[in-house]
Amino acid sequence: MKRELTRRDFIALSAATATSAMLPKFAMAETETVKYDYESLPPLRETAAKKGILYGSSVEPARLEITKAFSPYYEQDFNDAIARECNLLVAESIMKWDALHPTPEKWDFWLADQLLEYAKKYDMKMRGHTLIWHAAFPAWAEQALKEGRGEALMEEYIAKVAGHYKGKLVSWDVVNEALKGRGEGNEEGLRDTPWLKALGPSYIEKAFRLAAQADPDVQLVYNDYDIEQRPAKSASAIKLLRGLKDKNVPIHALGLQAHIDLETNFAPLKALCEEAKKLGLDIIITELDVFDPSFNTDSKKTDELVAAKLREFLDIVFTVAVPKQILAWGLTDRHSWLSSAQWNVWRNPKGHHIRGLPLDDDLKRKPMWHVLHEFLEKA
Ligand code: G3I
Q1: Which of 65, 287, 304, 312 is catalytic?
Q2: CA-nearest residue, atom 16 of ligand 1
Q3: Catalytic annotation present for 177
Q4: Rounded average pLDDT over 305-312
């Protein structure tokens, strides 16, 4: 597919990006249009694999062939696009506590195991997401924490889940989002979660040690959002990581979720990446998407701005270290958390359709795809 960008778009894009050095490598044709030649380029997974990088997406199994026989949400074209572009998958919801251990008596690995088989079939790797998190956490488990049974519960859960997937995953988000979110006081320090209340700050290191015991070879990750942009949160992340390393806690990587938007200021990002690198941690990108808070209705323009914002982000991260795993939180705008009811409540009240992922609704590659291709190619 050739997609044309007019001279006016090009100028608008130039103004939106800070310097000409940050502009995408488009070819300016004599007709004064810029041409992308997307479809002739190899899938992201191929470009990534050449550089020893895994590229991927979060997925809901209900849309994949593993549930074809019974799922009303199955989509052949989506299934094929995932298989074509990705060599890394992460479950969007089905490897969280409420899915794997919904009641005290019930453990359910069936769907997650099916997803692992799917990944194997298409020669993809899988990440685990996530062991300890305050969300997707059932009421019965929270009650157990309140009753002082937190340590035993964590021990049992991590041993069972990380043990079940021992040797089968490339990495685990051991602790997810333990730092304060937006609007939680001064945004410094640990989030007030049921785990913090029950076990104190040491719940984090405990989780890492248990994960290492259960699966000694998997990469163990601390994963969070906004750390690439909110100064207080970024500083808290550095403090947390330093503290864990000082105590010889088995932690191997920092996961930048990278739910960014067109207004994101990446001021603290470089220092965070440098510090993580200094501590001997890998930096990986785990949940990338790019939100447009202005809800621009000119989709062509939005796509260019999204691509430019992604370029700004990747430029900083890649300058410090090339991430060996890069995942977007979805592959196509057709299924994006940014257009979901949950996100709508918070930042998209009118339910606009958001174009924050690499492929459009028709699974066509967008400028964002092109930026990913370019960074993988030059990695
Ligand atoms: O599977 C049930 C289904 O059986 C039920 O009928 C339906 C009714 O609500 O709910 C379904 O579960 C939903 C699940 O997504 C699967 O669609 C949950 O209610 C819903 O809460 C869940 O939301 C996910 C959320 O995490 C909480 O687990 C989102 O899809 C997912 O995008 C979001 O992902 C998080 C990352 O894990 C961490 N970082 C931020 C990111 C975005 O919020």
Answers
A1: 287
A2: 93
A3: yes
A4: 98
Compute, in angstroms, the gap from residue 97 CA to the centroid of ligand 1. Answer: 11
Q: What is the pLDDT of residue 171?
A: 98
pLDDT at 3: 38
Please indicate whether residue 92, judged by its CB atom, sits closer than 6 Å to ligand 1: yes
**The tokens of 43 are what?**
């899938």
Task: Provide the 8-state DSSP code for 67.
Answer: G
The CA distances from residue 66 to 57, 59, 72, 314, 328, in Å, are: 17, 12, 12, 33, 21
Q: How far apart are alpha carbons 86 and 55 in whole angstroms?
A: 6
DSSP 152-207: HHHHHHHHHHHHHTTTT-SEEEEEE--B--TTSTTS-SB---HHHHHH-TTHHHHH
Quote the ligand 1 centre to 43 CA distance (angstroms). Answer: 28
CA dihedral 277, 281, 284, 290 (to 10 degrees): -60
Q: Is the CB of 287 under 6 A from ligand 1?
A: yes
Closest ligand 1 atom to residue 130 Cα is 37
pLDDT for the residue 185: 86
Indicate yes or no: pTM above 0.85: yes
Q: Is the peptide bond before 130 cis (omega within 30 degrees of 0)?
A: yes
Residue 92, H or E segment: none
Mean pLDDT computed over every residue of the chain: 91
345 CB less than 6 Å from ligand 1?
A: no
| 4-55: pLDDT as tens digits | 333 333 333 333 333 333 333 334 344 444 556 678 999 999 999 999 999 9
User: Where are the strands (E) in the chain, listed by range?
Assistant: 2-5, 27-28, 34-37, 54-59, 88-91, 125-132, 171-176, 219-224, 253-256, 259-261, 282-291, 325-328
Residue 135 near ligand 1, beta carbon < 6 Å: yes
Does 65 participate in catalysis according to the annotation?
no
Q: Which of 64, 67, 70, 93 to mutate to test the pocket of ligand 1 (most atoms within 8 A of CB)?
A: 93
Centre of ligand 1 from the C-alpha of residue 346, in Å: 15
Is 93 near ligand 1, meaning CB less than 6 Å away? yes
The C-alpha atoms of residue 16 and residue 177 are separated, in whole angstroms, by 31
Average pLDDT over residues 275-290: 98
